[in-house]
Amino acid sequence: MFEESPNSMAIWNYFDKKFGQLIAPIGLAKACGVLSSQLAYERYSANIFTVAPTRQFKSITSTDASKVFPKSYSIDLGSDFTIFDIYEHHGRGKNGIHKKCLMINDATVLFASKGKKSKDRLVGALGELISDGAYRYGDRLSQFTLKGRVSVIMNMTFESYNQYSKMLLGSSFLERFLTLFYAMPWKEQYNFMKEKEKRVKFSWKDFKPDKILFKRRISKSEFLGELTEIASTVACLSMKSFAGTDDQLKSLASAHAALNSREKLIEEDVFFIKSLVPYFSNPFAPNESKIVRLAQEGRNQKDICLLLDKDPETYQPYVSKVIKIAKERGLVSI
């Protein structure tokens, strides 16, 4: 694994030895998310949204991933800020927040501390920054423009994700993220706490990555088909648009190549993307992707219920709801 990707191997080993094998792909993905903000030739940056139970290393993995790179690559926004704070403290300079990864420690705290109007403005502004590289605000009292190509890494608990994904985040915002779910098994938590004092001795001094390349365009023509095939699977797992998922995965693969000083994608970059596939499945809706795949095959709703070993009378409303969302996001033909 990663024989031609020494920096990835170092980062993977760091997170594996410090937090365990479940966390290693998450840590590497976040590192690539930070770096993707520097790849100015890419159309989109790779944005990571991590969803996991409380106290399962969401924040510390973000911090550790940012430490791989110079401090200038990222901005730590903490867990309680507004779009005005970003502009006031980071956006007034010549380059504003250009080529920065915005690190949001705890989105649960962030959204809980805001009223509806503030939440809507913040989510809308972050969405515009990610997609357009600019957010323009104006009212009777003030006007400003916040510019910059950014990537975003944010964390949220399962409980809050279930609450906000429907009433706040919605497809327009989450479409711009690769959402990764994980929950550390009880046995792994127990083993971690037993060895905690030994684990914290690991530092980046022990795993210093070699030179990173990000100034040249990454050639990926040989692997476009393979990445697109993975994107089709991930789009169904994530219930997100195919095109948006494809763009995000290719940006993440390009960042992985740049992390290892390569100017073109190789099979190891595709392997890295494949290692993340299990994390795209929402554990609270395990049948969603199966329903979408069956609908794509032309199965009717009653057949889908039966194939999933469910009673059509009680399960068909849920199947109908999933297919409706899939149609809205272009995963199933209208």
Structural descriptors:
single chain, 334 residues, 2 domains, 15 helices, 7 strands, 10% strand, globular
Structure description:
With 334 residues, the chain is an alpha/beta fold. It folds into two domains: 250 residues, Rossmann fold (3-Layer(aba) Sandwich); 41 residues. Helices cover 52% and strands 10% of the residues. It contains 15 helices and seven strands. A hairpin with a 4-residue loop joins strand 4 and strand 5. The protein starts with 5 loop residues before the first helix and ends in a 6-residue tail after the last helix.
Output the CATH class name of the largest domain. Answer: Alpha Beta
The CATH architecture term of the largest domain is 3-Layer(aba) Sandwich
Q: Which secondary-structure class do the elements indicate?
A: alpha/beta
Strand content: 5-15%
Number of helices: 15
Q: Tell me roughly what share of residues is in helical segments.
A: 40-55%
Give the tally of β-strands: 7
Rg: 20 Å
Order of strands in the sheet with most strands: 2-3-6-1-7
CATH topology name of the largest domain, in short, is Rossmann fold
Summarize the main sheet.
5 strands, parallel
Mean pLDDT: 88
- Count of all domains: 2
User: Shape, please?
Assistant: globular
Gist?
This protein is 52% helix and 10% strand.
Summarize the topology.
Layout: H1 6-19, H2 24-36, E1 48-51, H3 58-66, E2 74-78, H4 83-90, E3 100-104, H5 107-112, H6 116-132, E4 134-138, E5 143-147, E6 150-156, H7 158-174, E7 178-181, H8 186-194, H9 196-199, H10 224-238, H11 242-259, H12 267-276, H13 288-296, H14 301-307, H15 312-328
Parallel strand pairs: 1-6, 1-7, 2-3, 3-6
Antiparallel strand pairs: 4-5
Helix pairs in contact: 1-2, 2-3, 2-11, 6-7, 10-11, 10-13, 11-12, 13-15, 14-15
